[in-house]
Amino acid sequence: MTLPATELSAGLPPCDFTVFGGTGDLALRKLLPALYQRELEGQLPAGTRIIGVSRTELDDDGYRHAVREALHTHVTADELDEDAVRRLVDRVRHLTLDSRDPEGWHLLHDLLKDRPQVEGGEEVVRVFYLAIAPALFGPTCERLGAAGVVEDSSRVVMEKPIGTDLESARAVNDAVGRVFCEQQIFRIDHYLGKESVQNLLVTRFANTFLEPLWNSRWVDHVQITVSETLGVGDRGGYYDTSGALRDMVQNHLLQLLCLVAMEPPTYVGRETVRDEKLKVLQALKPMSPEDVDRSTVRGRYTAGLVDGAAVPSYTDDIGHPGSSTETFVAVRAEVQNWRWAGVPFYLRTGKRMDRRMSEIVVVFKEPPHAMFPHSEGVTSPNRLHIQVQPDEGMRLHMTAKEPGPGGIRLRPVSLDLSYATTFTQRSPDAYERLLMDVIRGNPTLFMRRDEVEAAWTWVEPILRRWQAAPDRPKRYPAGTSGPTAAATLLERDGRHWQESEA
């Protein structure tokens, strides 16, 4: 089936989409399938090319074969359309280059310059996606600049992590910034492309009943959890130098916190949202060494059972028994501003836990007066659960009267919004949305340099204290909800983790 040009691609400029690390896991598992879905929907602009760059010795046909295999592996059978696969594969080229080697970059220059004329003479957007090790971000951009392929309409996309601390983050940003201006740099956090995360903004700012309650007068606390059942897999080499704090808290969890806590922007778009997120990061209470000892927990999984199967410990996974790297983090944070003064934000993330889940829970305060002193049953605080994955949706927990004669019997109930059942159309993957935003030049859902550096400024005291502290990460068996110290962190405040139904 050949799709005609559609309204979806109308107005979008043609693009040369160059993926460095084109034969890597991220490109083949996420980026190419995301571009395929946009091809299937007729959203890729006419004349768009996809250029994979890697050190692998492949010609165009060899890379096209690898792309075709990746699509058949990572796209569900009911979404595979062979005509769309063919159209995408026809767009694909491959170049063998090494970011650290100055030789051969003229080949990329020639390929980008020597392209078929686009109908109407539209300017071609050049996107350079760095799906490579962060240490190569600077050298790759320097090669691009030296090769003369960076134009005013060019864009560069960087995957996290941006550095390993504040100093290295600045060094990466400086190196990339010498070639690309800030408006051309797209620092991607795929969590911000998820439907439920974006819907959080709509829930807050397009519905009048919640915003008056979204403050310290009515909110008791907020919990943000990102848990995984998987271990480190083949990322052990990277992960053991990173850990959960750098890998998840500094970017994903803090970005979710920002969307929960930010003030209403004048409108949702471009710099306004990023301005408000930055204010939240700058308002986070700095962590003293005593705060780190009292308000953080780090853990590491031991052998256990996940989904009924025995799994090894972290140190067995990486083959390094002396490692002190954490695979679990829980943090009590505070946003010191007028809206959130005194409201704790509890962040939690870990690997090899009892379930795969990403969720934001806003727990409201108890009613100020007990109106039903002689009622039966149990009550619980109102809670808004925002489910990011795997099943995107929202649940508002309330207290209702159980039907029947006689006295009042109270019962907790929930109002549920499931995206899968409420909306009939397919929900795009986060990368699909974000890649198209790059082509459009829309930076709203991407991190700005000052955001990245503000996040590192808050995280760095935790890293320093952990490095200086003699205690090692608390152990927790794989397949559980983390170390007991994480539960104690909330129990000291008279609270507990809100565990969703499995």
UniProtKB/TrEMBL annotation:
GO CC term (a single one): cytosol
Any keyword Signal? Answer: no
Provide this UniProt record's keywords sorted from A to Z. Answer: Carbohydrate metabolism, Glucose metabolism, NADP, Oxidoreductase
- Quote any Pfam family the record assigns: G6PD_N
Tell me which residues bind NADP(+).
55, 160
The reply to whether NADP figures as a keyword in the UniProt entry is: yes
Which pathway is it part of? Carbohydrate degradation; pentose phosphate pathway; D-ribulose 5-phosphate from D-glucose 6-phosphate (oxidative stage): step 1/3
PROSITE patterns for this protein: G6P_DEHYDROGENASE
InterPro entries per record: G6P_DH, G6P_DH_AS, G6P_DH_C, G6P_DH_NAD-bd, NAD(P)-bd_dom_sf
One biological process GO term for this chain?
pentose-phosphate shunt, oxidative branch
Q: What exactly does this protein do?
A: Catalyzes the oxidation of glucose 6-phosphate to 6-phosphogluconolactone.
* Name of the featured protein: Glucose-6-phosphate 1-dehydrogenase
Which organism is the protein's source? Answer: Nocardioides psychrotolerans
Upper taxonomic lineage: Bacteria, Bacillati, Actinomycetota, Actinomycetes, Propionibacteriales
